[in-house]
């Protein structure tokens, strides 16, 4: 029996093209064959992951520009990711996050600019010794078990004591009890965890992930971020991932916000919040009811810089957060305030303030 290795659909006879997702199995198989031919690069006999301790920068983009046709996707970006940190590229879909990721891992070339990984040009073959990549869509062998997928990855990368390493990874990604289950039977979240495990098995110095938490339930999202944080704090690795979830950014050492093809701001979550006009504080108002007309009136209140709406709550960014004063002004324009308080700013407010865009998750 044959399954699509992308969406898991059962295929008929000798079908090589998935009717559900359009995946070309023959092209994918050829890519895997090429990958297996190149796997000697990762032989355990070769010195891999030997990076000088004096190198403090994991990723560097200089005058980095990506164009597609006549459109500028990314415009003259300069950024650095420090070694040994958990860093996310934060922004909505269509802002160029995936283009940055694809260029870093060699799947796309920038129009101009320079990319270096641990001080080495990204085109240098030795970069693959340092780099692990988890794409947004899991690239797995769906007709193999969880354990077989991990063993295949261990073999590809020349991992010593593969069985012990597989057991270690199974425990890390919480799939020990699923080790004999075929990948085609896993949930979307479990597939993402397995895809992550297949890269972690080689212990890359730099792990890059494209939207690792997209489409997952909150618990699985938290599990993935916890794993990523653990390999940074416990193993000293560097992790760089893209996301549009504001909660993911809260757990990072550094956040790089991308909007309209440029890097809008970069810093730790705490520093970015402190840079807000209210120095890390916002006014949170709970209303009896929110209408478009009321929101337009609230935005016109003097002193209000930005608003973030969450259900019946609105978070107000202002130079001098004063809950009582703002509640009174909202009452005057017809709003019914149930609660008003000063709260700590979150990455949602940071994103809205620096980009001027609404948060869409």
Which descriptors would you attach to this protein?
361 residues, Rossmann fold, Alpha-Beta Plaits, four-stranded antiparallel beta sheet, 12 helices, globular, disordered N terminus
Q: Any overview of this molecule?
A:
The chain has helices spanning 25-38, 97-104, 127-130, 146-156, 162-172, 188-200, 218-233, 246-250, 269-274, 292-299, 323-332, 347-355, and strands at residues 2-3, 10-11, 57-68, 71-82, 86-90, 112-117, 120-121, 131-134, 206-209, 238-243, 254-259, 262-267, 281-287, 304-310, 313-318, 337-344. Helix content is 32%, strand content 26%. The protein has two domains: 57-270, 3-Layer(aba) Sandwich (Rossmann fold), CATH 3.40.50; 277-344, 2-Layer Sandwich (Alpha-Beta Plaits). It has 361 residues and is an alpha/beta fold. Strands 8-9-10-5-11-12 form a six-stranded mixed beta sheet, with helices on both faces. A four-stranded antiparallel beta sheet has the order 4-3-6-7, with helices on one face. The chain contains twelve helices and 16 strands.
């Amino acid at each position: 029996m044959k399954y699509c290795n992308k969406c898991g659909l059962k295929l008929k006879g000798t079908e090589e093209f998935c009717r559900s997702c359009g995946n070309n199995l023959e092209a994918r198989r050829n890519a895997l064959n090429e990958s297996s031919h190149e796997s000697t690069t990762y032989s355990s006999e070769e010195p891999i992951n030997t990076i000088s301790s004096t190198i403090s920068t994991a990723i560097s983009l200089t005058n980095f520009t990506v164009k597609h046709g006549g459109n500028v996707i990314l415009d003259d970006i300069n950024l650095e990711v420090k070694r040994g940190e958990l860093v996310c590229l934060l922004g909505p879909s269509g802002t160029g996050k995936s283009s940055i990721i694809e260029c870093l891992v060699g799947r796309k070339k920038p129009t101009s600019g320079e990319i270096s990984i641990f001080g080495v040009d990204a085109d240098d073959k030795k970069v693959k010794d340092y780099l692990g990549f988890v794409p947004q869509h899991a690239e797995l062998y769906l007709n193999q078990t969880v354990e077989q997928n991990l063993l295949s990855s261990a073999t590809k990368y020349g991992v010593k004591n593969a069985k012990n390493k597989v057991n270690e990874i199974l425990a890390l990604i919480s799939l020990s009890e699923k080790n004999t289950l075929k990948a085609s039977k896993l949930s979307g979240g479990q597939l993402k965890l397995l895809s992550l495990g297949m890269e972690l098995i080689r212990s890359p110095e730099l792990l890059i992930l494209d939207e690792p938490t997209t489409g997952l339930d909150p618990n699985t999202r938290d599990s993935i971020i916890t794993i990523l944080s653990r390999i940074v704090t416990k193993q000293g690795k560097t992790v760089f991932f893209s996301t549009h979830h504001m909660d993911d950014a809260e757990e990072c050492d550094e956040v790089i916000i991308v909007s309209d093809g440029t890097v809008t701001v970069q810093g730790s979550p705490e520093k970015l919040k402190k840079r807000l006009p209210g120095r890390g504080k916002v006014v949170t108002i709970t209303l009896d009811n929110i209408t478009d007309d009321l929101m337009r009136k609230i935005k016109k209140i003097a002193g209000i810089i930005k608003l973030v709406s969450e259900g019946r709550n609105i978070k107000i960014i202002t130079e001098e957060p004063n809950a009582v004063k703002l509640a009174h002004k909202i009452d005057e324009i017809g709003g019914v305030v149930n609660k008003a308080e000063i709260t700590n700013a979150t990455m949602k407010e940071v994103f809205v303030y620096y980009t001027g865009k609404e948060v869409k998750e």
